[in-house]
Amino acid sequence: MSKQEKNKKDFEKKPSNGFKNIKENDQFILDIKRMGINGEGIGFYNRLAIFVDGAIPGEGHNIEITKLEGKMAYGKSIECKHASNARKMPECPYYAECGGCSVMHIDYQEMLKYKREIVIEALSRYTTINPKSFEIKNTIPSDYTLGYRNKSQLNVKKNDGKMSVAMIKAKSNILVPVDKCLVQKDLINTLNKKVLSILEEAKVEPYIRKTNTGSLRYLVIRATKENKALVCFVCQQKDAKLKELVNKLLAIPEIVSVYENINSNDKSLEIFGKETNHLGGEEYVIETLGKIKYKIYPTTFFQLNSYQAEKMYDVVLKQAKLSFKERVLDAYCGVGTIALYLAHNSKEVIGIEYNKESIKAAEENAKLNKISNAKFLQGDASELLPKMLRDGEVFDVLVADPPRTGLGEKFISAILESKVKKFIYVSCNPATLAKDLEKLKECYSINSITPLDMFPQTALVETVALLTLNPSVKK
Ligand SMILES: C[S@@+](CC[C@H](N)C(=O)[O-])C[C@H]1O[C@@H](n2cnc3c(N)ncnc32)[C@H](O)[C@@H]1O
């Protein structure tokens, strides 16, 4: 028996007492039982969950405990003792270092199953809802598992006089220069290089916090399915050289729009600052999803995988079962994406969105598509929805696609009060979805949850949950 196997046996013999039996640097063999929300493998020692990056359910790893925290422990794999059939070679040479992707070592079809299981696990963990009491569909796959991201917003670095874009190493603030990111559209990789070489020639310098020199912090590129691109330079302070480069940039056939954004707060994790200036070319790029065209500006929200966004909006449209008579509310509407997608089949659609630029774009998008039954309101959804209900507004279908933090108490209270018959909850975070469903179950039943793979090579999973008002709830 090896030393690690003996350790494992010894551990198992001891009574369950949380961390008392385990300390940092302990090594033993751990069987991986399931996948964590970030794609890690989880094994159990007694009832203590141990998270191991890069381990896959079904595998056995010789691990070393790296951290003990609350009711959880973290370990690193020293050796994979037996590998899962789902294990594969990651395609990307930066995979071990870069923090962008987390499950590129797992077969795609298997990962789709794990994503569904992550949703079930979140429901089991955060709710009293029985996940078998309704349908949880198979994860809708992405047609493109690489080359799908329509936006890159990367740090800019200079090494030995050569500019490059850089990713942030996982669980650190170390920058890893990358020549090519495989999940980004090829066009974005090509344009990153072309733009960087123009910047280098013009002696534009990346901002260095330590010395407070240079200007350029991030290079942002958004590209459409038709390969039209918008370039935005995010700078610590204005750099007059950038304006002079506009014609050179616009001479690259795919680049149609150039912006600068000033973000002087180098302690903030936000990419964009408040000041955005159009430097040249078109003011926006246009993306088409289904029959609807959307103007995209540098700072407005737009789903990062256009191909999957279309599939997701199709799911919402199908579930809404509209018959041209309904008043639909799209809360957290971004540039009006879901509202406009549903407008042709509704009597009226109303979108609520916090971001002023997005609301402006939503109104322009309605005009661009000749949609006259859409109205957009700027404000906090959790303030506006209760107000609209107090004013006597009635909706037949409510759609909400909030940020990762979920719906929030006030918004949930408003839905419960609204007694809207059909609620379609689009979520990018199974944990907050589950916590919100636990509260919504007071008046609503879950008909189905459809997981969807918006971000292949990551453990992120998007879901569309269809909820209907319980018949016993009185209006
Ligand atoms: C996940 S995005 C969804 C956007 C849109 N449904 C789409 O698919 O493109 C969430 C949106 O909610 C907006 N938002 C965040 N907090 C908000 C709030 N409290 N009230 C209204 N909108 C908010 C963000 O600006 C963002 O556009």
From TrEMBL:
Molecular function terms from GO: rRNA (uridine-C5-)-methyltransferase activity
Keyword Cell inner membrane (UniProt) = no
Which residues are recorded as binding S-adenosyl-L-methionine? Answer: Q303, Y332, E353, D401
Q: Which positions are catalytic residues?
A: C428 (nucleophile), C428
List keywords of the entry alphabetically: Methyltransferase, S-adenosyl-L-methionine, Transferase
Which PROSITE patterns does the UniProt entry name for this protein? SAM_MT_RNA_M5U (PS51687), TRAM (PS50926), TRMA_1 (PS01230)
| GO terms of biological process kind | rRNA base methylation
List residues of the TRAM domain: 21-79
Key word S-adenosyl-L-methionine present: yes
Q: Which Pfam families match?
A: tRNA_U5-meth_tr
The family line of this record is:
Belongs to the class I-like SAM-binding methyltransferase superfamily. RNA M5U methyltransferase family.
Q: Which NCBIfam families match?
A: rumA
Protein's UniProt name: 23S rRNA (Uracil1939-C5)-methyltransferase
Organism of provenance: Anaeroplasma bactoclasticum
